[in-house]
């Protein structure tokens, strides 16, 4: 494989999702009961669930076609947001796993943190993104809008779960 081909793969935005996917895969079953799939999707309005899943698919599929960069000021800000967001996202999970009975974890802000902190790292990805790998007009604001929509709907979903506990 040539250096150019390797760089092509190393600049794929999907790589930024891998730590989050592994984190979710490894630790999701350790989250408190309200977060478990059988509870989290129970009695959620159908339109909310459909909208959330469409937006989820978009924010996780677009990076597969997104070339990331490091040079522009916007991209540097994106890397900072991505790092901060992933750190806060992981910390929000740790709070729910290890301190589920704390006043923070039982508050709306604490319970919803795994949902709304995802917007920070998703915005980071949106700002890091340079262009698509194929010739289609693209502007980072499209991904930012998708990420904001997903964050809003995902947080609303989490809030509906919070109201049950």
From TrEMBL:
Q: Where are the transmembrane segments?
A: 7-27, 47-66, 78-99, 111-129, 141-162
- Keyword Transmembrane present in the record's keywords: the answer is yes
Q: List UniProt keywords, sorted A-Z.
A: Membrane, Transmembrane, Transmembrane helix
Q: What is this protein called?
A: Uncharacterized protein
């Amino acid at each position: 494989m040539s250096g150019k081909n390797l760089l092509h793969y190393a600049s794929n935005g999907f790589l930024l999702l891998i730590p989050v996917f592994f984190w979710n895969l490894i630790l999701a079953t350790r989250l408190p009961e309200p977060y478990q799939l059988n509870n989290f999707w129970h009695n959620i309005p159908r339109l909310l669930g459909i909208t959330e899943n469409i937006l989820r698919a978009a924010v996780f599929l677009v990076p597969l076609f997104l070339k990331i960069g490091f040079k522009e000021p916007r991209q540097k800000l994106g890397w900072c947001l991505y790092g901060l967001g992933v750190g806060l996202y992981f910390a929000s999970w740790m709070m729910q796993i290890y301190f589920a009975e704390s006043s923070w974890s039982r508050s709306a802000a604490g319970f919803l943190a795994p949902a709304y902190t995802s917007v920070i790292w998703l915005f980071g990805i949106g700002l890091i993104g340079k262009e698509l790998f194929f010739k289609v007009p693209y502007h980072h604001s499209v991904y930012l809008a998708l990420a904001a929509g997903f964050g809003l709907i995902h947080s609303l979903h989490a809030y509906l779960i919070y109201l049950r506990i």
